[in-house]
Amino acid sequence: MMELTQGQWVKHAVMHPFEGFEDMRWKKSGSLRIAMLIVVLLFFGEIAYGRLYGFQFHIPYDKTFNIIPYIVRSFVLFGAWTVGNWAVCTLLDGEGTLKNICIYSAYALIPYVVQLYVNVLLSHVLVRDEAVFMQVIELVGTCWTVVLLFSAVKSVHQYSFGKTVLAVALTIAAMLIMLFLLVLFMSLVQQVYIFISTVYTELSYRARV
Question: Can you count the helices (H) and strands (E) in the chain?
Fold first, then answer.
């Protein structure tokens, strides 16, 4: 294969799901900068999908903007997938490094990210009776990303089909565990903050009295 630029490698990986990542691995290609850009675009895409969608298709029920859910659906979930896959596949003798897992997984997200922006734009052009077109685009983008993620795991770790299925299942389990621990940690931090705030308020009141 002729030498490709980083942008061409992105296109090659997305358009050739069953050989693109294999070619990237053997050529030691992939850009961490592009990967981070894709995750940032995912973040803004989730915001656009949640807040800028056409009113005839989706009306946000929350009146105030809260950025936390969008951070969770983009940066947190992607980080949990990357770290979880690295941890699981280290135990399963996977060959992928944390950097490569991050790059390949981010590239795999492109169809999903694209459908977010496309559907937001279409929601302001199409009418309610034409919503099926948007549903098809969402389904194709999501399924395409799932296939690419599977291919990315298979290629980066050099697994067989069966071992890739096992690795993906264990990665999802690891993600759930990490997210559960994160929720517990945030709850603990909140309780500590409330306790410190209560003690400070009480001491301040007694000092004034």
Answer: 9, 0
